[in-house]
Amino acid sequence: MLTITEENYLKALLHLSSREIKNPGVGTNQLAVQLNVRPATVNNMVKKLRDKELVDSEKYGKISLTSKGKALAVQIIRKHRLWETFLFTKLDFTWDEVHEVAEQLEHIQSEKLIEKLDKFLDYPQYDPHGDEIPSKNGKFKIEVKKTLADCKPGSICEVVSVKDNDTDFLQYVGSLGIGINSKVEVINKLNFDGTLSLQIDDNKVSVSQKIAENIYIR
């Protein structure tokens, strides 16, 4: 059985590697920043995970999940997103509240509980942030998505998910009327800093390029 810390490392590695489709390896410093620890701490944990055949790494090189490590990481993400969905749909948590609680619940080890939770929720495909929930068998698509920052003036798009689960970020975009399935029209885009002027229902709002880069659309 893995420790909570080991599970967090596997999940962080999968999260970071999904951003690098062509070169999925993750650097020590990247992982340290993601987990808010020192690089030396990362090196020590990577050695433990390598001994358990969960990661591959070379000295001063990239770190990557083995097939065994990836399978475990996907199941952790599956539990996390099922718990987020449960909190959101059954206990009336808001989408900016569910992540922190699910971070605690995802480490419950009972497979029977997770199977019953999945059935109770009627086998949901997506969590409250629009992210796909991996299946029991670990089927899980990692794909490069288009962001709101990629949209040109005059285009109309639909919000499908968000990259950032930070509470402040979710509260902010929610206050603008942006949520999953929101229809957004891009009115204007400033060349010098990428700020977007948007029409959302009857409201006109502006968002920075940084915010737009964290909103996935289709």
TrEMBL record:
<feature type="domain" description="HTH dtxR-type">
    <location>
        <begin position="1"/>
        <end position="66"/>
    </location>
</feature>
<comment type="similarity">
    <text>Belongs to the DtxR/MntR family.</text>
</comment>
<dbReference type="GO" id="GO:0003677">
    <property type="term" value="F:DNA binding"/>
</dbReference>
<dbReference type="GO" id="GO:0046914">
    <property type="term" value="F:transition metal ion binding"/>
</dbReference>
<keyword id="KW-0238">DNA-binding</keyword>
<keyword id="KW-0805">Transcription regulation</keyword>
<comment type="subunit">
    <text>Homodimer.</text>
</comment>
<protein>
    <recommendedName>
        <fullName>Transcriptional regulator MntR</fullName>
    </recommendedName>
</protein>
<dbReference type="InterPro" id="IPR022687">
    <property type="entry name" value="HTH_DTXR"/>
</dbReference>
<dbReference type="InterPro" id="IPR008988">
    <property type="entry name" value="Transcriptional_repressor_C"/>
</dbReference>
<dbReference type="InterPro" id="IPR007167">
    <property type="entry name" value="Fe-transptr_FeoA-like"/>
</dbReference>
<dbReference type="Pfam" id="PF02742">
    <property type="entry name" value="Fe_dep_repr_C"/>
</dbReference>
<dbReference type="GO" id="GO:0003700">
    <property type="term" value="F:DNA-binding transcription factor activity"/>
</dbReference>
<dbReference type="Pfam" id="PF04023">
    <property type="entry name" value="FeoA"/>
</dbReference>
<dbReference type="InterPro" id="IPR022689">
    <property type="entry name" value="Iron_dep_repressor"/>
</dbReference>
<dbReference type="GO" id="GO:0005737">
    <property type="term" value="C:cytoplasm"/>
</dbReference>
<dbReference type="InterPro" id="IPR036421">
    <property type="entry name" value="Fe_dep_repressor_sf"/>
</dbReference>
<dbReference type="InterPro" id="IPR036390">
    <property type="entry name" value="WH_DNA-bd_sf"/>
</dbReference>
<keyword id="KW-0408">Iron</keyword>
<dbReference type="Pfam" id="PF01325">
    <property type="entry name" value="Fe_dep_repress"/>
</dbReference>
<dbReference type="InterPro" id="IPR001367">
    <property type="entry name" value="Fe_dep_repressor"/>
</dbReference>
<dbReference type="InterPro" id="IPR038157">
    <property type="entry name" value="FeoA_core_dom"/>
</dbReference>
<dbReference type="InterPro" id="IPR036388">
    <property type="entry name" value="WH-like_DNA-bd_sf"/>
</dbReference>
<comment type="function">
    <text>In the presence of manganese, represses expression of mntH and mntS. Up-regulates expression of mntP.</text>
</comment>
<dbReference type="InterPro" id="IPR050536">
    <property type="entry name" value="DtxR_MntR_Metal-Reg"/>
</dbReference>
<keyword id="KW-0804">Transcription</keyword>
<dbReference type="GO" id="GO:0046983">
    <property type="term" value="F:protein dimerization activity"/>
</dbReference>
